[in-house]
Design a protein that fits this description.
Chain B: Its EC number is 4.2.1.20. Chain B: The beta subunit is responsible for the synthesis of L-tryptophan from indole and L-serine. Chain B: InterPro entries: Trp_synth_b_CS, Trp_synth_beta, Trp_synth_beta/beta-like, TrpB-like_PALP, TrpB-like_PALP_sf. The complex is a heterodimer of chains A (267) and B (406). Chain A has 12 helices and 8 strands. By secondary structure, chain A is an alpha/beta fold. Chain A is 50% helix and 14% strand. Chain B has 2 domains: 155 residues, 3-Layer(aba) Sandwich (Rossmann fold); 212 residues, Rossmann fold, CATH 3.40.50.1100. Helices cover 42% and strands 20% of the residues of chain B. Chain B is built from 16 helices and 15 strands. In chain B, helix 2 crosses helix 4 and helix 4 packs parallel to helix 5. The chains are: A alpha/beta (267), B alpha/beta (406). The interface between A and B is large, with 46 and 39 residues.
Chain lengths: 267, 406
């Protein structure tokens, strides 16, 4: 059983939902990242999505775009992110770590080299925004052989047939993007999400994380009531952006926000 | 559009999922998948619909001004002392470039699909103008994304788009050029997917765009082939076209792919020179990767990050290239070469002075390569150059480069 499957099984057994923070690796500078990952775990994170910076983040809104630009200004590319993952794993053998990003860095490294490197770094999952299931077989099979889950995105306009496709190819969990748009945009419509989750659950037994629009403890609590996991990204990265001259303050605000979410979700 | 190639047309790329060998495909975020499926169904259906084709052909004739002439550049050919050079005069189209062939087609498709809002990306502004033009004609809302750097260097086209009623959004992210405009247009599309049609201007993007844009641009090659046979009595020996994303080149090449005696040469922008790293020549100096929805040759570093491109011509300033060009390169059916900024300028001046035709800087890359090629060929041989656009939009760039002020 993969670390992700274990984690979701444990959470289910204890009646809790996964808190899944997303941050962009290397934002605002490389040394900031790994200590923050540990602190996020201490604050109640169950799974971590670590963003691999990309020069052309087509599905991301301005907040994560700028995070990628800050990270790339210090040359935090895929190789560097893999080394961060390895460093994190040295002192945390328990928390699943998912690399989230775009396909081109993986293409340029080569699928097999990437799969081997991800295995060496003991990465648990890979979420590639621009790799739909139809094109994913070559990459997914190499990851699967190495016990690494491929996580797929679901959108509000994804139909039952496609959900079944993701269910067949994906593992670990599915990530439901709760609104049409880019990261960091708009507001959650809980009734919509709830309705969509029904359709998703009819077509997959995989755990479902929900993200896009989770901003505070209240939204986290609302989503936790209906989903298996709550993904929060832009709201955390906004804290970095608001405190570029004081990274310690950014760290403090991120941890405070996560703790408040954890608390609200566990009530 | 198979019915347009009644006999002997055997090349049948791409496959049903948009693959040209390993290239092409559909690499997009999940939210776009339903829209792409819907578009693909509409494209497959209407390209077989005689009524749609008749409407398209009438628009190309009466609105665009087709067929465009195939012009023998006699004086220039004599001067170069080799092959006879024919120019396919896409510069004479309404709006001044080949781009309108495609926007007319996609706009008709948008109308058939009931979309009320059009978005587009643009580099030099030619595609933006061509999109704003058809949107104005059909009364559709139009938003054009354009890199802030390009907004500055193509101010005239920005004004034209605004006159036509389009909203021009300067894109400040990344390198602030065409690739970033494409990113922003994709973000808009994801957000407004229900009512919005994205008119991509080149043969890139997720399937069906590379095939669809090619099919709309293939009118260039179909006409050129007929005209060449009518005027010169035979097929040409070589086709030469500039390649940024590659739509004018594919438009010229496609109807000749099965005519193996016809050489096809795509000319990429070498900027300061390929050896300097400051260029826009992914086929000559890049590597395969995935960007903007398809697998193709790209300019990327060892981490897979996209490298900033350089070219005097905004329309060629793009780090990728249409996936069909990647396939034609790998199979050897087409050759890809490159021309520097300085060489392109020499081509620009040569045509202007020798033939009284002021070409676009993009097309000037093809002209400059033909200046090298023609003298190596016999006088009874024929080159067709795709004169993809006119140079009015580039006056400012050229004056600046050559230190001239009015």
């Amino acid at each position: 059983m993969s670390r992700l499957a274990n984690k979701f099984a444990d959470l289910k057994a204890s009646g809790r939902k996964a808190l899944i923070p997303f941050i962009t690796a290397g934002d605002p500078y490389p040394e900031f990242t790994v200590p923050l990952l540990h602190e996020m775990v201490a604050a109640g994170a169950d799974v971590i999505e670590l963003g691999v910076p990309f020069s052309d983040p087509m599905a991301d809104g301005p907040v994560i775009q700028r995070a990628s630009e800050r990270a790339l200004s210090h040359h935090t590319g895929l190789r560097k992110v893999l080394s961060m993952a390895m460093e994190f794993r040295k002192t945390d053998q328990d928390t699943p770590l998912v690399l989230m990003g775009y396909l081109n860095p993986i293409e340029i490294m080569g699928y097999e080299d990437f799969a081997n490197a991800a295995q060496r770094a003991d990465v648990d999952g890979v979420l590639t925004v621009d790799l739909p299931p139809e094109e994913s077989e070559a990459c997914v099979s190499l990851l699967r052989e190495r016990g690494i889950d491929q996580i797929f995105l679901l959108a509000p306009n994804t139909n039952a047939e496609r959900i079944q496709k993701m269910d067949a190819v994906g593992s670990g969990y599915l990530y439901y993007v709760s609104l049409k748009g880019v990261t960091g945009a708009g507001h959650l419509d809980t009734a919509d999400v709830e309705q969509k989750l029904q359709l998703i659950r009819q077509n997959t037994a995989l755990p479902v994380g929900v993200g896009f629009g989770v901003k505070d403890a209240d939204t986290a609590k609302t989503i936790a009531a209906i989903a298996d996991g709550v993904v929060v990204g832009s709201a955390l990265i906004s804290k970095i952006e608001a405190n570029l001259d004081d990274p310690q303050q950014a760290r403090h605000e991120i941890i405070t926000l996560l703790k408040s979410m954890r608390e609200a979700m566990d009530v | 559009m198979t019915e347009r190639y009644p006999q002997g047309h055997k090349y049948d790329m791409p496959d049903a999922r948009g693959h040209f060998g390993p290239y092409g495909g559909i690499f997009v975020a999940e939210t776009l998948m339903p829209a792409i499926t819907e578009l693909n169904e509409a494209y497959q259906r209407y390209m077989q619909d005689p009524e749609f084709i008749a409407e398209l052909d009438a628009d190309l004739r009466d609105y665009v001004g087709r067929p465009s002439p195939l012009y023998l550049a006699e004086r220039w050919s004599r001067e170069l002392g080799g092959a006879q050079i024919y120019l396919k005069r896409e510069d004479l189209n309404h709006t001044g470039a080949h781009k309108v062939n495609n926007t007319v087609g996609q706009a008709l498709l948008a109308k058939r699909m009931g979309k009320t809002r059009i978005i587009a990306e643009t580099g030099a502004g030619q595609h933006g103008v061509a999109t704003a033009t058809v949107a104005a004609r059909l009364g559709l809302e139009c938003v054009v994304y354009m890199g802030a750097v390009d907004v500055a260097r193509q101010a005239l086209n920005v004004y034209r788009m605004k006159l036509l009623g389009a909203t021009v959004v300067p894109v400040e992210s990344g390198s602030k050029t065409l690739k970033d405009a494409l990113n922003e247009a994709l973000r808009d599309w994801v957000t407004n997917i229900d009512n919005t049609f994205y008119i991509i201007g080149t043969v890139a993007g997720p399937h069906p765009y590379p095939a669809m844009v090619r099919d709309f641009q293939a009118v260039i090659g179909r006409e050129a082939k007929q005209q060449c046979i009518a005027q010169a009595g035979r097929l040409p020996d070589a086709l030469v076209a500039c390649v940024g994303g590659g739509s004018n080149a594919i438009g010229l090449f496609y109807p000749f792919i099965d005519d193996k005696s016809v050489k096809m040469i795509g000319v990429e922008a070498a900027g300061d020179g390929v050896e300097t790293g400051r260029h826009s020549a992914p086929l000559c100096a890049g590597r395969p990767g995935v960007l903007h929805g398809n697998r193709t040759y790209l300019m990327a570093d060892d981490d897979g990050e996209i490298i900033e491109t350089h070219s005097i011509s905004a329309g060629l300033d793009y780090p990728g290239v249409g996936p069909e060009h990647a396939w034609l390169k790998d199979t050897g059916r087409a050759q890809y070469v490159n021309i520097t900024d300085d060489e392109a300028l020499a081509g620009f001046h040569a045509l202007t002075r020798m033939e009284g035709i002021i070409p676009a800087l993009e097309s000037s890359h093809a002209l400059a390569y033909a200046m090298k090629l023609a003298p190596t060929m016999r006088k009874d041989q024929i080159i067709i150059i795709n004169l993809s656009g006119r140079g009015d939009k580039d006056m400012h760039t050229i004056m600046q480069r050559e230190g001239i002020s009015l």
